[in-house]
């Protein structure tokens, strides 16, 4: 859909792909379905088996829904600093939820490593491994990219989004480049992640921090390898929150912070490409998943983030 406020700010046409409308409420449904279908095709996942994954929440929700529909159990490992709404949703969907303390990837107790160990120790289980399982980006290459291209009538000059696993930006980027090599692919990176500096100067170096869930990466995952990134932007939480507020107040879209950061990146890309440009980004998930955080004035003040005026 065309986003009026961002389009006006960028001086060109900005479009958002409404991934919050998926069954699990986020863009991660695509990775979940792609990974499970791939495991089935390779004979690794049998009826009655278990899918185990480490996730900030949305991939786990997608996996739980797909697994329920296809006859599998689900075990989800998640950092305990993610939103309560995600935890409650996973439990409501029937997933077994394992919470761990947030820590650096190098720590063996990181949620990704913990999920791998649980999968190895569980009979009939597979580890979804969304970060390094390229079935993730393949799902976006085969579905998200051609949908965006078709829905924009083949008239697209730029695409941008943030990276968590890297599956969305790599898969969509590869898919769009295959349809039109002139499409500019831009990374929109939150503070606290290291990919901006990697694509800027070849070094993985983080700066600042972000409270955005599900985005931000400190390494080159298998999904990111070979991603066709042409340019990059670093976006603050404050700038992302401004767009979250504006899209809700002005256009009736209740979104999460990752969507706000993506929109800010799309505006930056649109300004760079010029007034005739048509730029697309991903509206990742619904703001209803963050009522206890992004839409909670006490939490916002605690994080030194602006409180929406209607909550003050």
TrEMBL record:
It holds the Pfam family PALP. InterPro entries: Cys_Synth/Cystath_Beta-Synth, P-phosphate_BS, TrpB-like_PALP, TrpB-like_PALP_sf. Residues 2-285 form the Tryptophan synthase beta chain-like PALP domain. Pathway: Amino-acid biosynthesis. It is an enzyme of class 2 (transferase). GO terms for biological process: cysteine biosynthetic process from serine. GO terms for molecular function: cysteine synthase activity. Keywords: Amino-acid biosynthesis, Pyridoxal phosphate, Transferase, Transit peptide. Its cofactor is pyridoxal 5'-phosphate. Its EC number is 2.5.1.47. This is Cysteine synthase. It comes from Paraurantiacibacter namhicola.
